[in-house]
Amino acid sequence: MTLFWIICAAILIVAVLFVALPLWRGTSKDNSVARDAANLEILRDQIAEMDADLKNGLLTPELHEQGKRELQARLLEEVGNGQANQASNKPHPLKITAVVLAVLLPLAAVGLYLKLGNPNAFVPQMQFGAGGIVRDEAGLQALEEKLAKNPQNPEVLLMLARSYVELGRYADGAKKYDALIRLVPDEAMLWTDYADALAMTHNSLVGAPTKLLDRALEIDPNFAKALALSGTAAMERGDFAAAIRYWEKLMQQLQPGGEDAKMIDEGLRQARQLLAQSKGGKMAPALEQINEPPAKAQAAAGSERITGTVTLGAALKGQADPDDTLFVLARALQGPKMPLAILRKQVKDLPVNFSLDDSMAMSPQMKMSNFDQVVVLARISKSGNAMPQPGDLVGMSKPLALGTKGVKIEIDQAVR
Prior knowledge:
Number of domains: 3
CATH superfamily of the largest domain: Tetratricopeptide repeat domain
TPR repeats: 154-187
CATH class of the largest domain: Mainly Alpha
CATH topology of the largest domain: Serine Threonine Protein Phosphatase 5, Tetratricopeptide repeat
Order of helices and strands: HHHHHHHHHHHHHHEEEEEEEEE
Helix content: 40-55%
Keywords: Cytochrome c-type biogenesis, Membrane, Repeat, TPR repeat, Transmembrane, Transmembrane helix
GO cellular component, one term: cell envelope
Protein name: C-type cytochrome biogenesis protein CcmI
Number of helices: 14
Mean pLDDT: 78
Domain Cytochrome c-type biogenesis protein H Ig-like: 306-412
Number of strands: 9
Radius of gyration: 42 Å
Distance between the termini: 43 Å
CATH architecture of the largest domain: Alpha Horseshoe
Structural class: alpha+beta
């Protein structure tokens, strides 16, 4: 960035010299000497004529002498006026113009650039869109070694953050995003991705992730991913009116009829339904009656089906009652965090063999087959509410491709 401003300053100096120097040098030259010489020559000619007239008897000696004195007096008067004018000359207008342009050109150029240009064009965050992802331990180790040599390198931090999240190491990814926002505090994308990684770590967007999303929207009120996740966070905490506001604003940016627009529109429909039902004092049937689908429906499901087993960690067994509700759900790795498929059991059924597919979707537009990768989340709810609550016990898978089988999820964390 410093080099950029140095180059700009050099170009401005050249431009100012190119314009102002010719004006400064272009002032009209002083012609008083040439004028005096011409007047002297005229005086000589007139005196020569008077001498000839005296010789030829056309002038008397008295008139001849009087005429010479008058010519000499007039010449002295003109020379004196020229010197006075020269002494009282004001600065030449061209020189004034040169000085004014030398001052105004840099000011105007910098002002226009700050108004119409992008002052952040050469800072590191402009390269973030191209941040790569490493999917092997050797690559991660190489990046960590590179970061150790230069801990302030934002590109390496971003690659590590994205790579850790891609590999399901959400806590590590969140730490790198935390370091990134300290280096580049005015990039909405970083705050949003940090919130997403932190939410995946704690299995909820409520709390600290929501604050990060709020900061992202302060920087860029129209940042699409921040709007989408903020709507989901509002749904999690039961603030359906806020979810509607976020998603309605997001819908204005999406292409009508596109897949993203369809998903957000379905989310809006659910939020409006839940808002209406909450005002009437009733829970949404979709959240009250989530049960395992019949075998016939499972058989009809396609290749998107993900299967596996859920177990409860030994350290948490004393915190769960047999009749506590167990939710097993799939949600998109990227995009709205609304469940794509959901299964309801009880703690006494553990370990639970689960199968999630499109037949278990809560809406036609929010199905597993609409996404490339999903995450399977298992949560024990004390309240029986599908919305996460403090004290719930959770476990989560790594990002999964559709059709993955034999997934093992251990419930090993508590929601705080």
